[in-house]
Amino acid sequence: MSRAALRERVAGLDARLKLGGALLSLLVALAGPAPHTASTVAALALLASLAVGERAGVLLRRLGVALFSGLALWALHGLLRPEASGAWRLGLVLGTRVAAGATVFGLLIALTPPWALVGALRAWRVPAPLAEVLALAVRYATVLERAAHTAREAQILRLGYRGVRRGVHSLGALGGLTLVRAFDQAHATAEAMAARGCRGAHLPPPGERP
Fold this sequence. Notes:
mainly alpha; 2 domains; Transmembrane component NikQ of energizing module of nickel ECF transporter; about 210 residues; 8 helices; transmembrane
């Protein structure tokens, strides 16, 4: 079976089943012996992502979040408690668990459209306003990622990452630009919802208890 056919087949599965599997995987990663269980879950999710045709660059970005989290915890532990030992293990545990969550839910989002994810959340008794907010977050995370990728490509063409100092400056500018785009997108979404009659209150359908 080709990757495209496998991806289409997995994407066609019930969103409730995929969401349940993702939550179960995260529970196993958090409750199992650390860091072995979390790293195993992350490795299996990476293999599944490659099997359905996910790009290597996307997977590396997901793992980059885990690496940053682990290094940040290791650095903070060393600064706040320099006399204590075992900082590397705490960073490893956090990094592997973040990697498990990022790879599992990244795969879920890649194979599940936002509207199907909302239906799955509602089936799991998640309040409708929260489900809608999560769906919007998933949808616009992709939009912001594309905007950041476009800005980074423009920086590379202008030699924005030539040298450590210039690279750090360009990275800060990229983060600021992405943050501004996020606020702009939130404002535009709020105006669009207001134009459609949304006033911040969720009215349940007739016959459904609030």
